[in-house]
Structures are given as structure tokens and as C-alpha cells.
Amino acid sequence: MKKNILPHIPFYFIRHGQTDWNKSRTAMGQTDIPLNEVGIMQAQNAAKDVAHLDISHIISSPLQRAKQTSEIIAATMQKNILYASGLIECSWGIMEGQPKGNGEWLEYWKTGGNIKDAEHCFDFSHRITTSLSDILNEHASKKPILIVSHGGVYWALNRILTIPAISDIQNCGLYFFRPQMLIPLNGAYAHCRQKKNLWYNFIALFQKENHAKI
After folding, report:
1. Among residues 41, 60, 49, which one has the least CA distance to residue 207?
2. What predicted TM-score, i.e. pTM, was given to this entire model?
3. Could you confirm whether 89 is annotated as catalytic?
């Protein structure tokens, strides 16, 4: 399998706010579910938290939950939004709309297992690599961009960059991916991992208690 590589360009990443399907632990995938009231509040709080960040602009998944989150943030930051279909969530096929349960099916998928009509994990990782590489190269500047996307995309980033996942990313959890350093920026914790050939580190800028878990 061809190795996934991203350009050495820093960027911020935030997951969308909560939806009713997040709350009920229903597999969402590419089903286009909007934010609920809690998700809107989370996005509003996130907008205040990121207002100080010196970014060039916002690039968002076009699915409603990410689009609404990016619009709320953009209104506070007064930044433009570009939409990238390559950053949409993974398709879960027949599992979309089904309870996540104990997550065994998801772990099976992560190891390369096939789920009917779902996007294969290797294809998904390749899509995210290609899309994000194109985005970073096209919009490279002195200021980083802010990506607004999904929990599955966050998982793919960790896989692509061979970063051990520290925790699941919560709704409106924000991370800064930086070459030679991966730092969770979070108010609650900060973790840096030094490792040969690990060129990205992340900072969890915030993962607040009122941000609903995946």
C-alpha cells in the first residue's frame, strides 16, 4: 500500500458541533444531519475560543453539521469559508442510521474489514490524504487555515500521520497540527510526543466538558 504523506504545512482542525444523532450514538457517516441546539451553542462557544487565532481562512466539509459550525465561527472571526467535498465524513454504508452499539463493527472496519456499501478505510484515508494535501498546497501562506470537518476525518489524520490517538475528538474539539510537533490544545491537558520521523505533533486547544463525546 502506498504511504500516505501530507505536506509539511501547519493547520487547525475542529470537529463540528453536536447533532441529535451524535447524542443518540447513531452512526451518521454522510447522512446530512444538522446541528441541534447544543451543537449550535458549542459552535458559538468555539467561535469565541478561536477568535484570537491568526488564520487565513476556513475550509469546511459541505455537510450541514460542518457547514453550520463553520458559518458560526466565520461570522465571529470575519473570515471567508471555502467548501471541500473531499473533507466529508466517511460513508458507513448499511450502518448509517444504525446504533453504534459497542463499536465492534467500527473496529472491524478500521482494521480493513468490509462493510456493505461503506467506503473502505484505506480508500477513505487515501481520499483525506489527497484532498488535504491539495488544500494545504493550494492555500499555503504565512497563516494556517482552519479545517472544519468530522470525527472520522480526525481519525484518518491520526492514521495518515502515524500519530497514536490520545482520545476521541469531542464535538467542537479543536487541534493544531504542526510539522515536527503534534500538540493537543485543550485547557484540560497538553501532550507532546517526541518520536523519530514523526513530523507532526498536535495541540488540543480545547475539549470542554460541555462538548458532547462521539
Report:
1. 49
2. 0.84
3. yes
**Locus of grid cell 518520536:** 195
154 burial class (0-12, 13-18, 19+ CB within 10 angstroms)? Answer: buried
Residue 59 has pLDDT above 70, yes or no: yes
Q: What letter would DSSP give residue 26?
A: B
- Three cell numbers at 91? 460513508
Quick one: how far is CA 212 from the chain centroid? 14
Residue for cell digits 468490509? 114
Instruction: Determine the Cα–Cα distance for residues 214 and 201; give it in Å rounded to an integer.
Output: 22
- Tell me: the pLDDT tens digits for 107-127? 999 999 999 999 999 999 999
Q: Which one of 37, 52, 71, 89 is the catalytic residue? A: 89
Domain segments of the chain as ranges = 11-206
Rg of the chain, C-alpha, whole Å: 16
Which of 16, 119, 150, 211 does the annotation list as catalytic?
Answer: 16
Average pLDDT over residues 172-180: 84
**Pairing status of strand 58-60 against strand 81-83:** parallel
Domain covering 11-206 assigned CATH 3.40.50.1240 in the classification: yes
CA distance 22 to 212: 8
Residue of 3 and 106 predicted with greater confidence: 106
Q: What is the distance between the alpha carbons of residues 151 and 129, in angstroms, rounded to a whole number? A: 15
